[in-house]
Amino acid sequence: MTFHFLPNRRWLRFSLRTMFIVVTLIAAFVAYHMNWIRQRRAVIEGRLGEDVYVQSWDPAEDPFNPPLAPKWRPPRGPGLLWLFGERGYANLDIQFGPPIRRQRDLTPEELARTKQIERLFPESIVHAEPMIWAP
What we know:
This protein is α+β, with helices and mostly antiparallel strands. The protein is 31% helix and 18% strand. The protein has two helices and three strands; from the N terminus they run αββαβ. Helix 2 (108-120) links the parallel strand 2 (91-100) and strand 3. The longest helix is centred in the N-terminal third of the chain and has 29 residues, at 16-44.
């Protein structure tokens, strides 16, 4: 009499501890990227402070340069943020207020804030300047 046994499929088995570790790593990955998206959106929506104004613009939306529009593609979100639906920004203009009448340099706090924004938007060209009031 011959017995036919099915082979052991040990490659499908894993411990509960392994599953918890994998789920924890995936949750940490998602949490890191969602926090990055939250910080980026806070910058774009202007929740940095009452004297900081951020404007994003894309060359395709420039009405003075229409021939560039069909050829230009917006950048993707950096890293894996595009997997979460985050779009990229080509340019960011930052103005630090309150409005003044004369030209001045950025303060160390404003320079630090600019560096922080540059880290949040590695795909963008970030331009920062103090706000100048012109009558």
